[in-house]
């Protein structure tokens, strides 16, 4: 009694839009015989997409349509029922239209376009929108309709001229038909609304219409009549442009035509006064007649005498710069131009013809540089080397072709910039090339860490950053035993030497500069572990001395250093001895003065006291210094005899210790030791 589905059920094929969809049947049962009636309701599933009658539609909408206008759209069909049927519509985003979805009496949906923002064909000629129909299934099914909207033109734009004012000039004898100016206007509308017709404005004088003609289609303004500068020098012509719309748009412009004078009038001579008869004894310079000359032409056409001024070579050539600094990288390609010396001469003709030459101050300049005599282009004839010469100075002379010629000198400095073309060169230890001598450095066993054993000395012929050398330990017998300073090249012990270390070590040091690209070289250093140097040195008696061409130079350099050092030592020793002598002499004077406060006059120094203004000529003093302080007072004792100074005791501050002076004048007697 099981009821089975014998084939696939299609609800839309059985019932269409009818809902609910049911199928009736009868069942016969035997023994006993019975008849049963039954019904099966076919439920809908979302197995159908909404469908538009066509995949796209086209609408024509005038740009003059006001906002709020509605435009019905084709509806989509969905054979499903209930929630699986068509439920809504959606419109792609745009600035002009929105979508209004309406429901019919049978529950079906339809959509209308609503104009929200007015259209402008000149801004956008067409719009492309997408209408999407959606059912209520999960997930929903959809269909799309392409909407193509053509914006129909309305005569809402007036013509516009490219310029509001046009200017032209024409000679007064210009023949008829000559083009004076061409005006142009444009209209953003289409069809007749955008077709333009040119014409004279209504207020254009009749005289202008007689002299000029305007092409209504092209806007070309041409000469029609005979122009006369002496009659009218400037014409103001007003033109207009109209479109062919029902209500035409109009634009206006102005054309200024300047008439250029032509020498078409002969001078007129008028005799304003004549003195006649003239006496035969009239003196030279007597006025005979007064003449008046007029010419209707203007400017040069109204003159009769033309004086031409001939040129004199009174201007020296002038350059935009008094000097040039040129930077050229070394290893350049020979024959390249490096500078163009520019100069000008305000004179005319031959006086302004310039020639360029290099002044041969340095004879090497002529072999390295060359200049084009006609245009002043400076060429580099050879390849330069920064390590050979860094700077070249020269003078370029610019001379004109006058008689006598005038010249200007321009300084040119050429600086050779460095390139990294030299690898580091090892000075110590010297590479073993032509000699069997082995440079061995010695370090004692048990040497502690941080001990400097030797130093790799190298130079780089380049300059600046290209000559900055870094040192790296590339290879070693025992890499853990020695280290090298990155920038100094000094080789240190990295740890304390042990008894089990090898007796001899070979280090390969990599020397690399910082150029781009970097260049490198290497140095091999041999270090022996021994107590004494003689343990590791070979038998030098068996080694033939190398013929070093620089040994004499080294000897003289060492000798010069020794001589200068000796001279400096002798000089310093002499100065020290002299200072010591002066100190001992001063000390003896101090010691000799301690025996008594005053001492009798002995050998003394004479001071011109009269000229110094201290004492009168007939006055005598003895001056003594105390030995107790370096800031002793200078004590002056008066004599027994009366003197103009009376009994006043004079004191002079800040005396020099250990020295005494006697001030001598003409006195009647000498003071006693007690005094």
From TrEMBL:
Q: Which one of the record's GO molecular function terms can you name?
A: calcium ion binding
Cadherin domain location is 53-161, 162-269, 320-426, 435-540
The yes or no answer to whether the keyword Endoplasmic reticulum is present is no
Q: What is its main location?
A: membrane
Where, by residue number, does the polypeptide cross the bilayer? 555-578
UniProt-listed SMART domains: CA
Any one Gene Ontology BP term: homophilic cell adhesion via plasma membrane adhesion molecules
List the GO terms this entry assigns under cellular component, sorted alphabetically: plasma membrane
Q: Where in the cell is it found?
A: Cell membrane
What is the membrane topology listed in the Swiss-Prot or TrEMBL record?
A: Single-pass type I membrane protein
Q: Which domain of life is it from?
A: Eukaryota
This protein is called what? PCDGK protein
User: Which organism is the protein's source?
Assistant: Urocolius indicus
Q: Taxonomic lineage of this organism?
A: Eukaryota, Metazoa, Chordata, Craniata, Vertebrata
- The coding gene here is Pcdhgc3
